[in-house]
């Protein structure tokens, strides 16, 4: 973050809730709605708006603010998948697998280099899971990296998203780097994923609330996504395979707990392989 705030040509696909885009610490000129879906919140008092804004803030909050973002100079492609229901702070609405699949495809087609999915997925039919898997594979073929929240049920389990080999699952850690009790873990998460902060992360609020706090793997996901955006901003010619390898460097044990995100080590790895 000291070296770069990102580049506008590096687009991050935010597949989440809508965003409180009038927040003074967000840059509207680098926030783009995908397809016909509005990026802006209609109901500020909805949990979908609150969640989307919190995640967007970690990625794109203005540097020098009370909650500086990781990659504020990158373009944010906003594709909401949550319906706005009343009740800020309530349970986050879930997204159907088909809706997630459509959002992934549309955001990739809009030019995203990395996707951020801090989403809970509801029950779905086999056809929906198949479409979701196909969309994730499509993103991988297009050279797009997908980062997805591992979930906050405190279980050892997988899902269609985090079990996909092209996805980097995000597990949450506390402030000492230990896995958070509520974070899901599992074989696919341990092999392909990363741990990132998820314990009371300060980000942007909605309405007259300048800042708010977010917990869990929804917070962890944009830390990894933002790191990827900064790495690609410094090494724009690097392939998705190289960036993934740099982030998941080193020997991995067959464990359910993934290693801790180390963006600086990933940068060093990309510098070495570039020469």
CATH architecture field: 3-Layer(aba) Sandwich
Strands of the widest sheet, in order across it, are 2-3-1-4-5-6-7
Number of strands: 9
Radius of gyration: 17 Å
> What coarse outline follows from CA principal-axis ratios?
globular
Q: Report helical residue fraction.
A: 25-40%
Percentage of residues in strands: 15-25%
Major sheet summary line: 7 strands, parallel
Q: What does this entry look like structurally?
A:
- The protein contains 7 helices and 9 strands.
- It is α/β, with parallel strands linked by helices.
- Helix content is 32%, strand content 16%.
- It has one domain (11-274): Rossmann fold, CATH 3.40.50.200.
- α2 runs parallel beside α3.
- It is globular and about 45 Å long.
Short note summarizing the structure:
With 275 residues, the chain is an alpha/beta fold.
């Amino acid at each position: 973050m000291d070296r770069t705030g990102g580049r506008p040509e590096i687009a991050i696909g935010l597949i989440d809730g809508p965003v409180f885009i009038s927040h003074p610490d967000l840059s509207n000129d680098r926030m783009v709605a995908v397809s016909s879906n509005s990026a802006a919140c209609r109901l500020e008092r909805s949990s979908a708006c609150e969640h989307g804004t919190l995640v967007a803030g970690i990625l794109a909050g203005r540097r020098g603010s009370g909650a500086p973002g990781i990659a504020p100079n990158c373009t944010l492609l906003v594709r909401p998948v949550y319906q706005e229901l009343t009740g800020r702070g309530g349970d986050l609405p879930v997204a159907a697998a088909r809706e997630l699949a459509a959002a992934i495809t549309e955001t990739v087609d809009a030019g995203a280099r990395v996707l951020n999915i801090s989403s809970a997925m509801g029950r779905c039919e086999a056809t929906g899971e198949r479409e979701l898997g196909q969309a994730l594979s499509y993103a991988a073929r297009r050279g797009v990296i997908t980062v997805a929240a591992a979930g906050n049920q405190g279980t050892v389990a997988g899902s269609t998203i985090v079990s996909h080999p092209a996805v980097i699952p995000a597990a949450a850690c506390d402030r000492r780097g230990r896995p958070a009790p509520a974070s899901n873990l599992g074989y696919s998460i341990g092999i392909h994923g990363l741990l990132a902060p998820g314990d009371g992360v300060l980000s942007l609020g909605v309405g007259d609330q300048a800042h708010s706090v977010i917990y869990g793997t929804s917070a962890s996901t944009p830390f990894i996504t933002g790191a990827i955006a900064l790495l690609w901003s410094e090494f724009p010619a690097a392939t998705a395979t190289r960036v993934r390898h740099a982030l998941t460097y080193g020997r991995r044990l067959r464990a359910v707990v993934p290693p801790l995100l180390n963006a600086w080590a990933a940068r060093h790895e990309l510098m070495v392989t570039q020469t």
